[in-house]
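ok so dumb question maybe but i'm new to this and my supervisor (M.) told me to 'just get the structure for Proton-coupled thiamine transporter YuaJ' and walked off. so i did the thing. is this what she meant?? sequence i used:
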Amino acid sequence: MTDSLIKKLNMLADNPVSIAVLLGLMLLILAFLRIKKIALQPRLITHIGLALALALILHTFRLYHMPQGGSITLGAMVPLLLIAFLYGPEVGYLAGFVYGLIHLIQSPYILHPVQVLFDYPLPYMALGLAGYFRDRIFWGTIVGVLGRFICHYISGIVFFASYAPESMSPYVYSAIFNAGYLIPNLLICLLIMRLLPLERIKLTLSR
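this is what came out, is it supposed to look like this??
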C-alpha cells in the first residue's frame, strides 16, 4: 500500500498540470468559504462597482504591454487594494475575482483552462490579502502584489515553460518575466498610496 501511494505521488509530481489543478481548486475553495461570510449591502455593492470601474479605466492607461501578457499601468491595482484595506480581505477576494473575470473577457490570453485560473481570477483575488494589513498600507500593498506574483509565477512555470530560452530554466524565466512588469506596478502603487488622502477617503466612504 505504501509503495502504491509513493507511485501515485511520483506520478502526480511528474504532472505539474495536475498539481496546479489541485492547488488552484484549493485556493478557490478557501477564498469562497471566506467570501460566503460577506453581507452584500447596497453601499458595499456600490463601492465594489466603483472600484472595478476605476481599475478597468486605469488599466487602459498602459505604459507598457508584455508580449505574452502582463502590463505596466497607471496604478490599476490601487482600487482593488483600497477595497481590501477598507472592507477586509473577504471583500478584496470578491472584488478581485469579479475583476479577473472582466479582465479575461476584455483581454483573453488562453493556453489551458488551469492557466486561465492562475492568470485571471486567482492573481487578482490575491490582492485581497492586503486586507490583513489594514493599518499597514505599504506592507499590505507589497503582500497583495506578492500574492499576485506567485499566481503568475506558477502559471509561467507550468504553462509558459516553452517560451523560456534554451539556456534558461523555466523557474528563472517565469520569475524574471513576471517581476519585469509587477515590480514597476508595485512601485507605482506604493507611490499612489503615498499620495492618496487615505483617511479622508475612509471617512467619506463611511458616510
